[in-house]
Each structure stands twice: as C-alpha cells, then as structure tokens.
Amino acid sequence: MAKRFDLRRQTGFSEIAWFCLFALYAPILMLVVFSFNDNRSVVKWTEFSLRWYYEAFDNDGIRAATAISLKLAFVSAFFGTIFATMAALATTRTKPYKGMYLAYAVINQPLMIPEIVTAIASLSLFALIKQLTGVTGIGYLMLAHTVFTIPFAYMPIRARLEDMTLTLEQAAADLYAPPTKVFWKVTFPLLIPGIVAGAMLAFVVSLDDVIITLMVAGPGETTLPIFILGAIRRGITPEINAVSTILLVASIVFVAIFFLVQKKRTK
Amino acid sequence: MNQPQDTTPAISVRSLVKTFGRGAEMITALNNVSVDIRQNEFFTLLGPSGCGKTTLLRLIAGFELPDQGEVLLHGKEIAHLPPHKRPVNTVFQNYALFPHLSVSRNIAFGLEMLGWDKAKVTATVERMLELVKLEPLANRMPDQLSGGQQQRVALARALAPEPRVLLLDEPLAALDLKLRKDMQLELKRLQDETGITFVFVTHDQEEALTMSDRIAVMSNGLIQQVGTPHDIYYAPETRFVADFIGDINIIRGEVNSTSDGSMQVTLAGDLEMTLAGTASVGQSVAVAIRPERSHFAVVGAPETLSARVTDNVFFGAGTNIHLMLNNGQGFIVRIQGQESGCKPGDTVAIAIERDAAKVLDN
C-alpha cells in the first residue's frame, strides 16, 4: 500500500531536527540559566538566586534605559503602524495604478538594505539637520525608529487586507455606506487583527534595535540593548544575563501576541 | 383596481458596452446590450460563465462603470452614480455577510446607513427576520450559521432597505441540490410577497426556467433572446439558445418552397413539414425539436421520419432513445418510464408534434 510522503519518516529526521533546535536555543537557555546563578561567574553554576534580578532592578542605568526603550518602542510602533496601515490600504484598496508595484517594492526595500547603511544614512542626514536647525533631542531617534518599523508593520497588515475579500466593502457600499463609512464600519474593524500584529512586530523591532540606535542616539539616549552593549565591554556579569532575559521575555510576549492574532485571522 | 399602470421599466439598459483590459488582451464583456426589465418582474440573466451576465449585474449595482451606454432605473439615469447612491441592493454569490456583525446588525446595516431612526430600524429588522424565518438566530454571528441560513440573512439584509430592484448574483450556486430547490421556491415567494423587481443571474438553465417571469439568454457579451421560460424553451430563436437550454435535436432541413412567413421544409431528406420562418428556396436550415415532443409511430405511417435505434439511456424519470436518421444525423426521443420496446438496430418511425419544430436563425 502506497504511503503518503512524510518527511518525518526520512532517516535521521529527528536527529537533525533536535540538533537544529539545540543550536538555536542552547545559547539562550544558557543565558537564562546563568541569570539565576548566585555567583559572579556566568560559566560556573553554584546556587539558584534572584539576586541579579534585584540588582538589575536597582540599577538606575538599567531603569533609565528601559524607560527610554519602552517610550521609543511605543511611539515608533504607534506612528509606524499608522503609516504602514495607510501604505497597505494604498497598495491593496485602489484600482491597480502605474507604479503600484514600485511603491510596494519601495516600502519593503528597507528590509533588504543592510541596516548599517540605513544607520549611517540616518546619521548623516540628522547631523545635517541638526547643524542647520540646532534642534536636538530624542525626536530624531523616534523618527528613525518609526521609519524602520514601517515595513515590519506593513507586512501583516497588507497580508490581512489581501485576505479580506473586496466583496465585503462592495456589500457595504451597496447598502448605502459612503466610502468613509465603508472604511470605519467594515474595513477597519476587520483589519484590527492585522494592525495589532503589525504593531507588535514594530514594537519588538524597535525594542531590539542596536545598529541604527547606536548611530542616531544622542547623549543620554541610551536604550536597553545599547546599555547592555556598553556593559559587556566592562565584562559579562549575571546582571547582564538578567537584563537580557527580561528583554527576551518581553520580545517573546509580543511575538506571541503577533502569532496569536495571526492564527485567529486564519480561523 | 383600475389605477393607471406605471409602465416605465424598472431597469432599462441602453446600448451598454463594457470592456476590460486593453490592447491585445482586451475582453469585451458587454457588446452593445439593450434590455428592459419590467417592474415587479422576476427577470433572469442566463448564460455560461464569461457571457457577461455578472458584468451586466455589476453595472446595474454600480461596482463597474460602463464604457458606453445608459442604465435607467425607473426612467432615471444611474450609470455614473456610485453604488451607495443607487436604490438597488445586491445578494452576493458568497453572501458577503459582515463577519464582525451579528445577524440582526447585518440586516440593520443598510437601514442605519440610510439614517432611519432606531425604532424603525428595529421594527424592520424584526419583520425581515420573520420574512426569512430566522427570528431565533437574530444574535448569532455569521460563522455560526449554515450555508442556507447565511443565504437567508443575505436576502434579508438586501431586502430590508426596500430597494427598487434586488440584484442576485448566482446566490444559490454554493448550496447543495436539495437546499437549492427549496431556496428557488423561497425566492419566488419572497418576490411575490415583497413585489420588488428581482434581477437574477445564473448559469443553471433549470433554475432560470423554474423561477423566472422572463429570461434573457446571454453569450459572448450579447443578449441572444429575451422571453418567457416557455418561449425560451419551446421557441428558441438561435442555435445557441436551443443548445444551451435543455436537450434538443437540431437537424438539417431543405427549403422547398416559401409562402408569406411559412415554408415547406424537408427534414433529414425524409419528412416534409410546413414551418414558420423565412428563407430562400433551396437553402439549408437548422431545425430544432425537443426530445419530449417527438414520439414513436407505426413504421411506414405517413408524416414520420424513419430512423434506426442506436442506444437506450435510462435516466430515472424517463429514457432517452438515441436514434440515427436516414441522413446520418443523431436524434433523441424521450419517453416516460423505462420500457421503450425497442432495441439497438431496430427500425422505427418518429412523429413530431404539431408546432414542435422550430427553424433557428443560424
């Protein structure tokens, strides 16, 4: 009897799978484990303790960096998602127009451009503006983050719009809804899962960004990843493990929300 | 009941042209289509996929704009109004119920958009739920309904704003056969009860014949024939209509003589009949005859076609006897039941009912 092809029946499948999972998660697991180590060492286990977490919470530098990171992530995810939603509508809910594919490519291009290039480009542009206007502050960092979160937020929103049949909007128009009502009564409520997913993704990429932040951030604008980066120059301590674990958990939570809303929409 | 009748057509389509794409890839969906749809009529646009029937419906609804021509609604030009400004409503093929709104909120949608006051909206929604027999499901969400129930909600939603014309785009296509039969009668009942003009799109000829007051048969962006189900079935004007609707025999005839709208035609070189139509003497014409309007007769009887039996095909409600005429063309005679009394190879005689033979235009 012919059996259906199943990759899992191939020789060595589970061994390879386990190896890949190990390679992916062993370092992270180690980092997490040693964040609970009651010792200065990050390689030699002695005893379970939350002491590094207390220390991290007591560290003013970490607290300030966390506050900046969160503020930055909220602001950039908020505005990035709004712009991404508008872009997604403009590339799916319009009659095909000349340059639509170009627009689509342009919106996604930042994902392909090496981040260091974007970072240096932003740095030079902002330096020029600062020189011309004399305006300084965290606004530049927020602007830079907003811009690079747009393509991340754009993807799930566009996917959602493409899944939504145009017939629903036509049905609303057929039932006497003028275009703005069609949007707010039908398109928008149905788009919410996409928007939430996009916002989560935007939030996480902003929260985790290093390179662009490193270039654009002014004095005192230290985000959590930048703080960690600075701290390890002075040697890795379990405190860094603890902070990294917190950042990891935060990222996992947001990505989990992203996957949950994504899953719900395919139901 | 002697009120003066308003005879303005509910929908009047004039010289409508609609193309899609451009250059070599241009498709002409509607090629100069004109038709009048009467008030309170159940009117069906029937044709194979790609014939332009759905495009015509979408032009009436306002989802597409015509390249040329006019669409009049009760005498008023609407071809360039956006959908939300046209007093017509649509039942979509896949129902297009708003998944985030309950059954009653779906039905209320159009009424709220029209700015009706709350009490009137509530009352109308209740009346509509009653009309489509869905009162117990008012608070369900669309994904908690069966296909047939969704269909009813879509109908109620489209009927609630009391449109001048209701457009139905193959609304029964997704239902299974049994449910489809029920819904055909249900739709007919709703049309009677509401008195609203229905324009119904389908590719199912049986559905069209069952439900319609009049049918427009379409192909290749053209209307081939408009008529009552009886006309369309028994008096097809073109070969396309004859072929598309039900089973039909199309056999060759030679015109022997003509006189004032009628002519003597020899069918299959065998039987001479007087048929309505105009053609020149000696011309070859196509003659259509329904299988159920021809019968067996005594072999050698006058005014019969002789043929040889090639096959008996039982299909439940009857049997199709496949025959071959003297000129080599195939012919089918349909009988009730299963006992044909003849077997392949037998020679038989076919008598054709009076007025059953119809000369086709081409």
Task: Give a description of the structure.
The complex is a heterodimer of chains A (267) and B (362). With 267 residues, chain A is mainly alpha-helical. Chain A has a single domain (63-266), classed as MetI-like fold, CATH 1.10.3720. Chain A contains 11 helices and no strands. Chain A has helices spanning 13-35, 51-58, 60-92, 100-108, 115-133, 139-163, 166-174, 179-208, 211-216, 224-233, 238-266. The longest helix of chain A has 33 residues, at 60-92. Chain A starts with 12 loop residues before the first helix and ends with a helix. The relative contact order of chain A is 0.14. By secondary structure, chain B is an alpha+beta fold. Chain B has 2 domains: 11-242, 3-Layer(aba) Sandwich (Rossmann fold); 247-359, Nucleic acid-binding proteins (OB fold (Dihydrolipoamide Acetyltransferase, E2P)), CATH 2.40.50.140. Chain B has 8 helices and 20 strands. In chain B, strands 6-7-8-3-9-10 form a 6-stranded mixed β-sheet, sandwiched between helices. In chain B, helix 2 packs across helix 3, helix 2 (103-113) runs parallel beside helix 4 and helix 3 (118-131) crosses helix 4 (147-159). The two termini of chain B are 45 Å apart. The model of chain B has no long low-confidence stretch (mean pLDDT 90). Chains A and B meet through helix 7 and helix 8 of A and strand 6 and helix 2 of B.
